[in-house]
């Protein structure tokens, strides 16, 4: 899959872009250390958008973060280190990243062969055109690792494998989260992670080390890590602790509005790649920051982050450096339920947390629609509760725009006995469609429960086509009708029977 970069020169963060591409890290309401490794280049759909398609991610913060890296390296050269034996690995890393950029962003990045070991590299975003000979340092304006990290938002660490261990022997790390790359250069992977609580006792670090040693070329993996950061600071390295450390106490003195603006959920997406020529292991560390005030606009994220922070064990919160303000962050998120969501008599009112299973039911039908991780989590919890009470069926569907999936749901509804409790979860369109189908099959309100994991889409009934369509939009907004192509105003008026919102020509246009 290829992408085109739409905006790379903002002076302030693009809120919509930050939210849509944010890799929310929590799959459950609790967090513990784990290897949490999965194959790379698998897109992840979230309630707000999608992430994970490409190994190297370029977004609206590209120029700003590239400029930050240059300033940090100019002020502190220890953020860049290459031990002599790692020079071949730096060329391997640079070339691998150029190929990834060329594949992911072909309209802005190109790598072309011009002869044996001769290459032309173009980065049209930054206006770079460079002819080079692979392995010849005189043909590049900078050391290979530093050259390529001046064109990606990721930090890079290169690990050499020898004597059964991995050693961090090269890298450019300017956005460290409370650690010192300059201090760690030359240390083994096991030595670096020695201070992390629980990981040795629970065997996490040993399993991760063994996994990394087994990595094969052309089989990249990824994992995520997280913490909280005060303000939009990418560089919270140990070297400059006096600049940011005091904020951990000072943040407790600000009002709630400032707290929500300044406290950020910080997520690292780490790609793990065995380089094909040198055999070194490349760690790519891409850091994403999202303030709590934006996180809270995605209600499933708000609820889950609050639960994780409230439940996090003391030793883990202390190691992450959030022990002083994590309780306030959890309270802030719990109190930040969206008050502005329309709840008038013409609008559906969705529960903010998954409703409990009505255990007085004679049987249970759990319907999970879509591939959202929250959908899977909610439906699993419902099934676990229902199975302890009575006969339970889980029906997993892709989308109710698909005729086969609609037939499967109708068949399950037809087979349901009187008194069966029907629980539906998924996106707003699918939940509304499923509830309407259940009502048509004879279900009464007491038998129906639902939980909407996102509201970015809705079922729209065009008053002119007299047909219901799936569209992305919200009540009060304007969308283009997929049937008649009119611009339609989506009214704050829905029909539970039809399972759709009413829409008509915007501005009275015909």
UniProtKB/TrEMBL annotation:
<dbReference type="Pfam" id="PF11927">
    <property type="entry name" value="HODM_asu-like"/>
</dbReference>
<dbReference type="InterPro" id="IPR048037">
    <property type="entry name" value="DmmA-like_C"/>
</dbReference>
<protein>
    <submittedName>
        <fullName>DUF3445 domain-containing protein</fullName>
    </submittedName>
</protein>
<dbReference type="Pfam" id="PF22289">
    <property type="entry name" value="DmmA-like_C"/>
</dbReference>
<feature type="domain" description="Dimethylamine monooxygenase subunit DmmA-like C-terminal">
    <location>
        <begin position="460"/>
        <end position="502"/>
    </location>
</feature>
<dbReference type="InterPro" id="IPR021848">
    <property type="entry name" value="HODM_asu-like"/>
</dbReference>
